[in-house]
Every structure is written in structure tokens, then in C-alpha cells.
């Protein structure tokens, strides 16, 4: 079986929410020497993007979406040990969470996986995280970065509030935002240091911002 078929298999099995099938394709990907990162992004994450589109068109419903997410996590479980991202020299800490009122955590979990693979220490606050918890965690952990995720226009408004608190209480912290309704422009308007459109970009942007701050 070729690389294209394996990536398509991972993608389709994720959409179908078929755990056995997706795990079997993940093992095939490793056996065939396919880059684990590519398998996650071009296979599983591509599948989740299709799921998102189908949901919007009313072709898929909540229970099916959750099965797809389970399948994606199962495949990532197989692929994760083989991820070889360029690692940060000295481990850096990132506090990561989904903002208040928002329980969409599939994207945040992907960001976490890629960050960990790159050597970051991730303090995962979970989802529907109150503003104060972000600020407290950053201060307690002396985190280098605070990463905030939001999938709804109604929840993303917590981001500028958190950023402004951090500017007062932990001004050296690098702030990063991401998620469906966010954009480069919005991130700038919120006063964030960085924005990333996907998990791969999140790692790249985090490294660039650390270099800019001095000390990657
Ligand atoms: Co809901 N949902 N949902 N949902 N859901 C959306 C977000 C929505 C756009 C669908 C729609 O109506 N068109 C819409 C929001 C509209 C708006 O903006 N206001 C919506 C809604 C309305 C709701 C409910 C209110 C529905 C209801 O109950 N009436 C409800 C909200 C509950 C709540 O949060 N309080 C709800 C519930 C749910 C489920 C529980 C069923 C489920 C979430 C399960 C879970 O996450 N555990 C769900 C899902 C799955 C979706 C869609 C279909 C898919 C989201 C997803 O997982 N995508 C979504 C439609 C869509 O996005 N088009 C939708 C796959 C994931 C890999 O991508 O999350 O974008 P994504 O993450 C990417 C990037 O954005 C980026 O990297 C990730 C990986 O590459 N990224 C970052 C994310 N965070 C980052 C942080 C960074 C950097 C990059 O730096 C820190």
C-alpha cells in the first residue's frame, strides 16, 4: 500500500470514527516509514476538517463527531512516539487552555501534542477555563507562553481580557491565540504576541516569538 492510500485511509477512518481501522492505518504508516507528523496532519487532522464541514452542512451530528475525535486520538496514540519535531534547546513552559464558556478542545489537544513533540512542557488547563485560572497558572508555573484557544465568536472575547491581565501581572509572558474564529488581525487587535492557524504553525510561531524575546 502506498503513502497516498495510507493517508487517505487515516483520513477516511477518522471521518467514519472507526477506531480499529484508523489504528491499523496508523501502524501501516509507521511500517512504511511515513512521517508521523504528516500522518497526523494529512491523515487524521484532514479527516477532522472534513467532519467539521459535514457538521456545518448538517450531514454529521454530535455523536458521530465525538466518534471521529476518539478515532483521531487513537491514531495519534500510535503515531505520537514517532513524532520528530525540531526540539527547543532548553525546555520552555506553555500554559494552554480553551477559554471560558467554550468546550471545543479537539484543536487545543492537537496543539498540545505538537508542542510536546517539539519539546515544550505543556501545562494543560483543559477547556472552559476561567480567565483567572490562565493568569494564576502562568504566574505559578512562571510560564514562558500563555496559549489560548477559542472556537466560538461568543467565547473568544475572553482573550483580550486575559491578555490585558497578563500584561499587568506577568508582562514578560508571550501570549498566543488560535482557533476557528481567530485571525492575524484579530490577534493583533486583542494585543496578542502571536496567532497560529493550525497546530504546526503554533509550534513555529512559539519558537519564533521565543527567539524574538531572547532565549529559544
Ligand atoms: Co461546536 N461549534 N458547538 N461542537 N463545533 C463550532 C465551533 C461551530 C463553528 C459550528 C457551526 O455552528 N458552524 C459553532 C460556533 C459558532 C460561533 O462561532 N459562535 C459551534 C457551536 C455553535 C456549538 C454549540 C453552541 C452547539 C449547541 O449546543 N447549540 C456547542 C457549544 C458548547 C460550548 O462550547 N459551550 C457546541 C458543541 C460541540 C461538540 C461538543 C458537539 C463538539 C466539540 C467536541 C470537543 O471539542 N470535545 C463540537 C464540534 C466538534 C464542532 C465543529 C464541528 C468542529 C470543531 C473541531 O473540532 N474541528 C465546529 C465547526 C467548525 O470548526 N467548522 C463547531 C477540528 C479541529 C482539529 O480544528 O478546533 O479549528 P480546530 O483547531 C485547529 C485550529 O483552529 C488551530 O489548530 C487546531 C489544529 O490544527 N488552533 C490553535 C486551535 N486552537 C489553537 C490555539 C493556538 C494555535 C492554534 O495557540 C494557542
Automatic annotation (TrEMBL):
UniProt-listed GO biological process terms: homocysteine metabolic process; methanogenesis; tetrahydrofolate metabolic process
Superkingdom of origin: Archaea
SUPFAM superfamilies linked to this entry: Cobalamin (vitamin B12)-binding domain, Methionine synthase domain
UniProt record similarity statement: Belongs to the methylamine corrinoid protein family.
Protein's name in the database: Cobalamin-binding protein
One GO CC term on file: cytosol
Domain B12-binding N-terminal, residue spans: 1-91
Entry GO MF terms: cobalamin binding; metal ion binding; methionine synthase activity
InterPro entries assigned: Cbl-bd_cap, Cobalamin-bd, Cobalamin-bd_sf, Met_Synthase/Corrinoid, Meth_synthase_dom
Keywords, ordered alphabetically: Cobalt, Metal-binding, Methanogenesis
Ranges of residues in domain B12-binding: 91-216
Amino acid at each position: 500500500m502506498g503513502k497516498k492510500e495510507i493517508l487517505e485511509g487515516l483520513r477516511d477512518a477518522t471521518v467514519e470514527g472507526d477506531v480499529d481501522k484508523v489504528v491499523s492505518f496508523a501502524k501501516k504508516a509507521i511500517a512504511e516509514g511515513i512521517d508521523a507528523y504528516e500522518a497526523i496532519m494529512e491523515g487524521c487532522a484532514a479527516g477532522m476538517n472534513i467532519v467539521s464541514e459535514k457538521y456545518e452542512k448538517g450531514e454529521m451530528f454530535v455523536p458521530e463527531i465525538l466518534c471521529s475525535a476518539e478515532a483521531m486520538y487513537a491514531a495519534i496514540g500510535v503515531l505520537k512516539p514517532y513524532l520528530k519535531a525540531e526540539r527547543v534547546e532548553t525546555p520552555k513552559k506553555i500554559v494552554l487552555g480553551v477559554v471560558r464558556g467554550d468546550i471545543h478542545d479537539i484543536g487545543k489537544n492537537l496543539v498540545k501534542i505538537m508542542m510536546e513533540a517539539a519539546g515544550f512542557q505543556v501545562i494543560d488547563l483543559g477547556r472552559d477555563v476561567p480567565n483567572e485560572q490562565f493568569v494564576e497558572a502562568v504566574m505559578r508555573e512562571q510560564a514562558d507562553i500563555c496559549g489560548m484557544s477559542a472556537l466560538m465568536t461568543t467565547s473568544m472575547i475572553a482573550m483580550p481580557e486575559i491578555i490585558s491581565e497578563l500584561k499587568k501581572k506577568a508582562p514578560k509572558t508571550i501570549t498566543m491565540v488560535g482557533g476557528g474564529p481567530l485571525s492575524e488581525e484579530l490577534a493583533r487587535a486583542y494585543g496578542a504576541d502571536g496567532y497560529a492557524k493550525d497546530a504546526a504553525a503554533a509550534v513555529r510561531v512559539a519558537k519564533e516569538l521565543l527567539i524574538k524575546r531572547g532565549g529559544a
